[in-house]
Each structure stands twice: as C-alpha cells, then as structure tokens.
Amino acid sequence: MSATHYFDGRSARLHVVELSAGDGAIHLCGEATRSYPASSTRLAEPFRRAPAVLYFEDGGRAEVHDPAMRTVLAEALGYRKSWVVRWQEHAAAALLALVLLVGLIASGWHWGIPAVADRLASRVPRSADQALGRNALDLLERQGILKPSRLSEDRIAALSAILQRVQPDAPRIPLRLRVYAAPELGPNALAFPDGTIVVTDEIVRAVMGSSNDFDAEAAAALAGVLAHEVGHIEQRHSVHTLTRSSLTAALSATLFGDFSAVAAGLPAVVSNMEYSRAMELAADDYAVEALHTRGIPVRPLADLFDLLEARADKTPAFLRRAMSYASSHPDAYARSQRLRKSATGQGK
Q1: Among candidate residues 161, 3, 136, 16, the one with its CA nearest the CA of residue 67
Q2: For residue 26, what are the β-bridge partners?
C-alpha cells in the first residue's frame, strides 16, 4: 500500500488515502474508500520526479507520490508507453524529432504563412482599403508628421501630371496625389491602401538639387518614385502586410508566448522585415515596367537611390549595407544596381 492524494472530481478537497492494486481493481482506503476496475482506470504518461496520476471512470483522480508504485500500477493496468515516450527515451530519435519539428516550423514560416496570407488578403473586402488608408493618413496629420507643403502650385501640378502619366489606364482603385512637408520623414514617398500617394517636399527638393531645376531628369526620377508607389497600391501590399503580420504574431505567440511578450513578437518582426523587402523589390519591378512602357528612362531613379544613400549619414557604405539586413527596406545601393541592370537590358 502507498499513501496517496485522492480527489473525488466533485470538490477541490484533498483526501489522504492508502492505495493498493489487486484482484483486477484499484483500492482506496482512508478518508475516502473506493474500488475502481483496473480496466476503466487510466494511468497518465509518467514524468520523472512527478507523481503518478490515475484517472477513474467517475471523474476522480489519484496522485501517487511513491516511485516504487509506478511499476506496480503499470503492471496492474497493463500500461504500455506510447511511441512518443519511447522516442523521447532514445537520444537519436529525439534528435530526429527535433530536426523534423524545426524543419516543419521553418517551412510553415517561409512558405505556409505567405501562402495563407495571400489567400486571406484576397478575401479582405475592398472597403477595408479605404478605412485603413484614411485612418493612417489622418493619424500622420494629427501627429504633425505631415505638414502643409511649401512647394508652389506649379510644382504640385507637375507632380500630378507625372502621376497621370505613370498610372495604369484602369487603376485598381482611384489614385490621388497629396504633397506634404515632412521633415521627420525626409526625402520619402508613401502609398496608402485607399489609393492616396504622399510625396514629401524633401524628396522633390532632393531630386531638383541645389539648382532647383525641375528638368527632364528630375521628372523621370519622380516618375519612377510615383510608379513605385502605384505598384504598392496595385499589388495591395498593405493588406498583405496586415494579414501576414497577424498570422506571424499568432504563430510566434503560440511558439514563444511562455517566454515573454518580447520573445513572442521578435520572430514576427524579423519575418515581416523580409516580407517588406520582397514587396519593395516587387514595387521596383512594377515601376521599371511602367517606365519602360511609357518610354521613361530608369537611370534617373537609380541615381536618386544613390543620392539618398549618400545623403543618409556619414556611416561607411559597407556598414550601412550590413545594417540594411535589420531594415524593412532593401539596401538602396543594391536597389540602384538592380535598376541599372534593368535599364541596360532595355537600353534606357
């Protein structure tokens, strides 16, 4: 017999009893007296240094702390270790299971989630694009990140004409151009899911240079910038980002949630940085095709990337490229070289 903690399944009260096994039954004597058929009693998977747990047919449970009783109970109940337990007890099998698990998670992360995200994105209603874009733009305006433009009306009209030139004949949703001063963003352009394209004063001035000349080179560079942003909107990248972010956050929380909120969020962030790079390159490809179709040279856009790379800061170029692996956008130098190759192939 062995001292055992017994719970009757109807209250939280602990009963101290003596447990024995024999005559095809499990017997309890003490604060509670019961006998349960061995055939309907289940022994939970054993864990080292943990009590053996018996589950009875009436919902009761017994916790047996005496290690010597494990063998007795296993024989009385005809317990046989599951294949999972047997694998765990063999180092080679456990290592193989670990490798298979890591491979499964990696495959799901790199191929499964993007495939599911694409399927989910196609089911997100178009009305969501309008709400997402409107709310995001309003937020940037309220925070003072986007301020009224200081460019002349003629400059803004010229930008609108360039957008009209590079946009598709039948855009997925109506496109509109908004120009803002945005010192915090610097030379930049943003695409919102509702079809709004934001261009900052700073990028226009960077393209024009110190001469403040809006010549053909400047127009071609800005045409590339706008075509790139049209690519984001046409390919609905914002919704794809939203769906994948949700999926990766859910998966990382499931896998790492027991460690901390930070540990759970980091895998999602890393995964989405890679996805953002892929989208940036896809938008570059869209811009190249749009420029080629309309007879606009690609080289000025590549020159703009080089200019922005040089103006970014005084960090050595090789270090900036190394740091780009922790950035949501691909390295500007690599993008400019990619654009130059496409321009060479098209003779532009």
Answers
A1: 3
A2: 21, 36
Number of neighbours of residue 209 by Cβ within 10 angstroms? 12
pLDDT tens for each residue of 226-275: 999 999 999 988 888 878 777 777 766 666 655 455 454 444 444 444 55
Radius of gyration of the chain (CA): 32
pTM of the model: 0.63
Half-sphere exposure of 313 (CA within 13 A, CB side): 7
**Measured between alpha carbons, how far is 35 from 19 in angstroms, rounded to an integer?**
10
For tokens 């992360």, the residue is: 109
Q: By three-state DSSP, how is residue 19 classified?
A: strand
| Number of helices (H), then strands (E), in the chain | 13, 11
Do residues 41 and 57 make contact, with C-beta atoms less than 8 angstroms apart?
A: yes
Residues 302 and 310: their CA atoms lie apart, in Å, by: 13
Distance CA 260, CA 266 (A): 10
**pLDDT tens, position by position, 141-180:** 999 999 999 999 999 999 999 999 999 999 999 999 999 9
Q: Are 197 and 226 in contact (CB under 8 A)?
A: yes
Rounded CA gap, 297 and 256, in Å? 48
Q: Are 214 and 234 in contact (CB under 8 A)?
A: no
Reported as type and span, the H/E element at residue 220 is helix 216-234
Which residues have CB under 8 Å from 128's CB, separation 6+?
A: 193, 239
Q: Cα 174 to the chain's mean position, in Å?
A: 29
Looking only at Cα atoms, what is the longest distance across the chain? 101
